[in-house]
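Kindly review this protein for my students:
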Amino acid sequence: MLRNKTLPFLLGIVLLALFLTAAVLPRLFTAYGQKEMFEAWEKPAADHLLGTNALGYDVFTELVYGTRDTLFIGLMSSIFTLLLGVVIGTLAAQSGVLGGLFDGIINVFVLLPRLITLIVLSAFIGTGRWHLIALIALFGWAPTARAVRERVKHLRVQPFVEALTVQGFSRRQIAIRHMLPNLADILLTRFLLGVNSCIMMESTLSFLGFGDLYHPTWGTMINLAYRRGAFLRQAYAYLLIPGFCIMLLSLAFYLISLWFSKRKEIIAESNS
């Protein structure tokens, strides 16, 4: 049964491998330099697959080099989101005042309008990829924290935890050696879905004009295409292809995370 569900997973792996290769080895996909200039607003042709933009840069080359920055922001944001979610979720699972305090913090951040908050803060803090990474992580950890909180609460009442406590193991030893491995499936799924969510959030903010112009992502490309008149110039590839790549990259992470979730369910059913 598990083998019948591997096709979407393999598709996700292929798509992700393609984008990772473009991010690490862009010269495999384009012979032009990132700032090499040509005639402005050339139509798509053999020399320029997606045409050129208002400054004469090859759009396909911009797309290839934008893969690196898009992936970088998505991955780094998801890593920091995961770390914050694990720490705060674990603290919220504790009993007493400390657990109640962090539990309330989680509930507050869940209710915050994330996109509006990020737009307002981005307007004050300014553009820059590290600013985007910090903001996305600071307001994206709540779903991970909730999942970690529920799992830790469930594990704390398990017989093996009580047995380890009786044997004299400290809370730190139990948490690191025995409880953390039981969080691996949640953390992996939340990380993959987090990359997906962070890429979409970064693309939205960059499209609205809060991206880093010195390290343009696909969202920034769409913003610049719209502002420089790509629609009037009928340069539809310049407008649509970056959005299509965002969709494919998000789909890759979603398919991979979906396979791990289904795999866990199938293994649990087979063991029961």
